[in-house]
Amino acid sequence: MFSPLAFTLGYALLGSLILSLTYVPVMCKVLLNRPLREKENRVSRLFTRSLYRLYRFSSRYRKGTLLVFAGLLLICMVRFCFWGTEFIPSMNEGAIYVRATLPNSVNLDESVRVTREMKEKLRQFDEVDFVLTQTGRPNDGTDATGFFNIELHTELKPEKEWRRKISKDELIAQIQDSLSIYPGVVFAFSQPIQDNVEEYVAGVKSALVIKIFGHDLPQLEDLADQTAAVLADVRGIEDVNVFRSIGLPELQIRLEESRMARYAVSMADAQAVVEMAIGGKAANVFYENERMFDIMVRFQKEYRDHEDKIGNILIPTMDDKYVPLKEIADISFITGPAFIYREGSSRYIGIGFSIRDRDLGSAIAEAQRRVGDTVQLLSENKMVWAGEFESQQRATARLMVIVPAALLLILFLLYMHFGTVRDTLIAASAMPYAFVGGFLSLWFTGTVFGISAGIGFIILFGIVSIDSILLIALMKSRMQQVRNLRLAIDEAVRERVRPVLMIALMGSMGLLPAALSDGMGSEVQKPLAIMIVGGILTCMVLSFTVLPQVFYFVYRRDKRLRK
Questions:
Q1: For range 326-346, the mean pLDDT
Q2: Taking the alpha carbons of 499, 500, 504, 505 in that order, is the dihedral positive or negative?
Q3: Percent of the chain, pLDDT > 90?
Q4: Sign of CA dihedral 104, 354, 387, 215
Q5: Is 286 helix (H, G, I), strand (E, B) or coil?
Q6: Beta strand pairing status for 382-387 and 322-324?
Q7: What mean pLDDT comes out for the span 433-443?
Q8: What is the pLDDT confidence band of residue 559, given thresholds at 50, 70 and 90?
Q9: Exposure of 356 in the CB half-sphere (CA atoms within 13 A)
């Protein structure tokens, strides 16, 4: 998802490097061929003086500055441990995808009737443009489901045309209230594209799913009901639905061998008659030109539409007599499996749910704790949390590798630049500025930490490294010239205020529109933009206040200052 960003940024930096070594010197020679006098405008002067005064204030209280930053870093670290997490923000597609799950045994006529009623209820909302419905499985047969499944694609008008001042979440809540009159129907609310992605990731029609693996279907349903009851009490978890395997009525005919032996009935004869009478059996073939059709033999409907009539079907005996089927078999209606879900050659039952008005990480953590304390699994059962949560865990594990690798690469480049371990460590001490700046941006805006925010941390690490290189390199140069540490730091900060300020302003202003945008599709890029805009400005302030004090305490006993 973020590879286009990485390629674009990499190509831009590579191009700027080439141009800065070729095009920029040539244009400087052509355009700057006369003596120039450096000028400052009012805006630049205001920022420069303000930042320099901030630096002077921090230099007056060096130890206090470092202690305050250490306390701020500790607060951010503790708060981050309890901060909400998610995979990626849900993108607003301008539509609502309503999925209604009826009992498995519902017939087609009843399902179609309920679908029409739900469609009319949705069309009563002024914010709805049109509604498309689907009952059962799609025409191409790729989605194995039954008449119990109803899907309603509810396309919304553009929000600027809405007469009522409500949000999309409030509209979903009102729709849910209007549809709650149907007993025994479970509703789930998603979006068209999101619904397809969720089904592809989770394997079932839900954003998040708990899969309980096992062999005994009734036992799995019992465990699923226990789990669903626990999930329903967790704040933020909505649309809890058990994807039931059992729920289809079936006629069970159990042939008893002892009674068949008493009447001299063979198992093959009994099975053949039952197959022919109820299900139908091919007796011959009919040819029509080049086409071939089976001629089916089957009892008429009025002789097989009730268990008593089926029990009166005559079965031939070996002594050329007939005996009713009910004399040699137990006939009854039972509730059997309608679907058997499998994954990795193992049966499982799914409990689907979604999360609203709460972050993904804390909701799942609480749900896992409650389910673990309440639901007792047997040795042959296994519980797996899948769907969007599984994607988040996989992406987080990848970030746990990428972020340290990026930091090590940055440290290596810093050492290649400075050539000393001491200067590299001073520059590395600026890395926490990126964490503090990025997290404060999330904190002040109430943004949940996700994958896009994690990418923002990596970018901030690179930017704060540039600030530290600019400041530390000039501090060392001035220190060797004036042989006075405080004067060297003062001169370096004064000269580097404008370059560091330009880096911060250009980086933040470029992403400010994305950080402030609220249009359709802006949800994915917004956390990244917020991280960069707020983090760059915070890193700039910390680079002028904390970094010079770190440099001072490291070099205050340097022998070169006494020569």
A1: 84
A2: negative
A3: 22
A4: negative
A5: strand
A6: unpaired
A7: 91
A8: low
A9: 14
* Cβ within 8 Å of residue 75, ≥6 positions away: none
Amino acid identity of residue 266, one-letter, is S
Total-model pTM: 0.72
- What's the Cα-to-Cα distance from 278 to each of 152, 295, 309, 325, 330, rounded to whole Å? 37, 15, 11, 12, 16
**pLDDT (0 to 100) of residue 154:** 92
Q: Where are the alpha helices (DSSP H) in 386-450?
A: 388-418, 421-428, 431-445
CA Rg, the chain, in Å? Answer: 36
> Which residues partner with 197 through β-bridges?
none
- Cβ 98 vs Cβ 128: under 8 Å: no
By C-alpha distance, which of 461, 469, 452 is closest to 432? 461
Does position 157 have pLDDT exceeding 80, yes or no?
Answer: yes
| Under 8 Å between Cβ of 76 and 440 | yes
Q: 421-428 and 388-418 are packed helices; what angle lies between their axes, rounded to 10 degrees?
A: 140
Q: Which long-range contacts (CB under 8 A, 24 or more apart) does 226-231 make?
A: 226/374, 226/375, 227/351, 227/371, 227/375, 227/383, 228/351, 230/367, 230/370, 230/371, 230/374, 230/375, 231/351, 231/353, 231/367, 231/371
* Alpha-carbon dihedral angle through residues 378, 380, 386, 391, given to the nearest 10 degrees: 120
The model's pLDDT over 208-240, given as tens digits with 9 standing for 90+, comes to 889 999 888 888 889 999 999 999 888 888 888
Phi, psi of 257 (to 5 degrees): -65, -35
**DSSP string over 465-503:** HHHHHHHHHHHHHHHHHH--HHHHHHHHHHHHHHHHHHH
- Token digits for 332? 């009854």
Q: Is the pLDDT of residue 74 over 90?
A: yes
Tell me what pLDDT residue 18 has. Answer: 95
For residue 61, pLDDT over 80 is answered with: yes
Handedness of CA 346, 351, 357, 363 (dihedral sign): negative
Tokens 């979440």 correspond to what residue?
169
Beta bridge partners of 293: 286
Number of H helices, E strands in the chain: 19, 15
Q: Give bridge partners of residue 391 from the DSSP assignment.
A: none
Query: Which pair of structure tokens corresponds to residue 27?
Result: 């244009």
User: Do residues 384 and 211 touch, judged by C-beta distance below 8 A?
Assistant: yes
Length of the chain: 563
Strands (E), 157-236: 186-190, 208-213
Q: What is the arithmetic mean of pLDDT over 180-185?
A: 86
Burial of residue 332 (CB within 10 Å: 0-12, 13-18, 19+) is exposed
% of residues, the chain, pLDDT over 70? 97
Interhelix angle 451-482/388-418, rounded to 10 degrees, is 10
For range 509-518, the mean pLDDT: 81
In the block, tokens 């979903």 appear at 172
| Site of tokens 């003062």 | 490
